[in-house]
Amino acid sequence: MKKVIIIFMALLLTFPLTSCQKKKEKVEIVDDNYRNIYEIFVASFYDSDGDKKGDLNGVTKKLDYIEEMGYTGIWLMPIHRSPSYHKYDVVDYYSIDPDYGTIEDFEKLCEEAHKRDINIIIDLVVNHTSNLNSWFIKGLDAYKNGTISQYLNWYNFSSEPQYGFAEKDGVYYEARFVDSMPDLNLDCREVRDEIINIMKFWIDKGVDGFRLDAVTSYYTNDIEKNVEFLSWINKAAKAIKEDCYIVGEAWTSDVEIRKYYESGIDSFFLFSLSQGEGLLAQTVKNLKPIPQYKNALRNAVSIANGHIPAIFLDNHDTNRITGSMGRTKTEDTKFVYGIAAMLNGTMYTYYGTEIGMVGSRKDENKRIAMLWDSDKMNDLCKNPEGTTQEEYAYPGVKQQQKDENSLLNYHKQVNYLRNKYPEIARGEYEIANKLTTATLIAIEKTWQDKTICIVINFDKENTATVDLSELRDYSNCEYVSAVNGKAELKDKTLTLPAYTIAILSQQ
Ligand code: CA
User: Fold this and answer.
1) In terms of residue numbers, what domain contains 441?
2) Using one digit for the tens of pLDDT, what is the confidence trace for 229-286?
3) Suppose 310 and one of 156, 173, 176, 267 were both cysteines; which one would form an S-S bond, judging by CB atoms 3.0 to 4.6 Å apart?
4) What is the pLDDT at residue 19?
5) From ligand 1's centre to the CA of 55, what distance in Å?
6) What's the 195 CA to ligand 1 centre distance in angstroms?
7) Residues classed as catalytic
8) Residue 138 buriedness (CB in 10 A; 0-12 / 13-18 / 19+)
9) How far is the CA of 88 from the centre of ligand 1 (A)?
10) The domain that contains 27 carries what CATH number?
């Protein structure tokens, strides 16, 4: 009798009474470039040595947090020596900015990240350099004095004023963004050779890929030449490291992004889906969610055309999504992340978005200190100079970790599902039209002979009852709910609360 009870107890533990679960376990990470990437502005993230400036060792110290949250990649905004707080104007591409640490710190970060199956990509800013870069100083000097220098041809110098040019010491030079950021001459062979050297250098230090800044400005208003350059840089990177992942920032229309994918670059950020006015936020805010979500899904896959869609809601240049959704609208803020993360591709999360940080208007406001602990405000990194909004909409990491229903725990559960079911990011999708209604969508995704079904209830208030009898024999169900509801799968009927996403799988 005792034995029977033990077996029964064991069965209970193995098969919970309800077959819909909300659990977390350590999952195997697929070693490819469909990842959950966490974007970090190092200066505002975590300070390891008490100078109030975030640094690389600070990122290393927070790797356990990053791993626990289910991020499988990190994008570091520029880390090279630079005179600006944002560091998008590089003085020395072979250095780490002293505020951030040393090359050894960087190697340590890569090593520790890789132990946790987390990849590292870094910003590669080659449209322009800082005007304090020695290449520019030497080139300008040679042009001015009529002397010979290898750097004469590295920038576009002119003796006459031209549109998009700045002036120094009577010499004009192309500088499309600001005077302190002269544009490199990307037609110059030596510049291209140097870019290869830079990529080699950092791949050798441990990076897994690069985020290319401002690719539409490489050759301003010349998409053909931009595609040619991107195709070149992609081949060059893959010649150094076969699986080197490259994501390009082409802040432009879907039509142009589609064209940019012809370069063979792995990913381009899909701007039309991002931000408060983008397709995903509108899907949550509007009354006709399903046609819009179908568009988002179709666009993501079709624009990438066999490559990897790069999905994001906000980044260091945009207003933070929490403010765009409404800073008291926690359920909407959660749900928009949930539906974004159910799309195919790599999902990018800007640091602090997982705890609902806000920031808008000035760039500095979008890059304030990560809120680790609301009770220890004095321990935070110093905000960028010029910040005009310093408030937080939600408590810090420590507080949210203890709250089962926090934004942070919602993000964590979504990331866990993306990691556990590789079909979400990689699968060929088919919409189960028979189940789809005005507020509910069912999407089957197949990858490597395995099919799952994602069911999303877009209704903000009402629970949906879904008859699954016409689908495959799905017997497992895991879910994530933006309203803290409980999903249930029983006898081929799925009960799905408002704003809840279920992942159905077969035994
Ligand atoms: Ca520091």
Assistant:
1) 428-505
2) 999 999 999 999 999 999 999 999 999 999 999 999 999 999 999 999 999 999 999 8
3) 267
4) 61
5) 5
6) 29
7) 213, 249
8) middle
9) 19
10) 3.20.20.80
